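Render this sequence as a predicted structure.
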Amino acid sequence: MSAIYKRELHAYLTSAIGYAFIALFFAVSGGVFVYTTLYAGTANPGSYYTYMLVFFVILLPILTMKSFSEERKLRTEQLLMTAPVSIPAMVIAKFLAAMTIFSACTALCSCSFLLLVRYATVRAATVFGNLIALLLVGGAFIAIGLFVSALTENQLAAAIGTVGIILLFFVVSALNSFIPVYWIRFVLSGVSIFSRFSNFTQGAFDFSALLYYLSVMVVFLLLTGRVYDRRRYR
């Protein structure tokens, strides 16, 4: 498992897609920080993290689109499936590699709030809570991206498919406020990734949201493993 993790991490740090993701992430983060914090004249990190969450719809599919689709296109997935490592371990290794790149970028960008300590009151607990929430949502998106990437050898199709699924979660959140029937709103809010994020932006830790995000990760990682289980015995 560690060999696949190191291989994937090295691939991210030596490929054009990896550098493109990192550069785009820092560019978007800088722009959002200036707009929501410096231009707005506030040290409240809630707006920054909320805007970054929206941009993740485009950013994270770039990170995950090559994870499995490139293996299938280059015909190297057979080496993975015959390697002395289980399919769940292979999937987890790829997930952890993508999470490492994403987490490092997110944590480094969050350090921007340290620049405000001399000029405003920055609540470290609020920043940390928002950071944890963003990592949880990002992990859910990465798991979705890995699943879609396992379904096709076309990287562009994998990216578009991931964007489509994430946008579906957005639509569920948007429709929730327009539906008059309570039980339908309750069901939709239960499957909405974004409605659970708001508690964290207000400085409250939501344990049920933590379980939900972890459940989304586990479900899509299991589905990815299932795809390769079926492919191995085909």
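Summary. The mean pLDDT is 83. Residues 2-232 form one domain.
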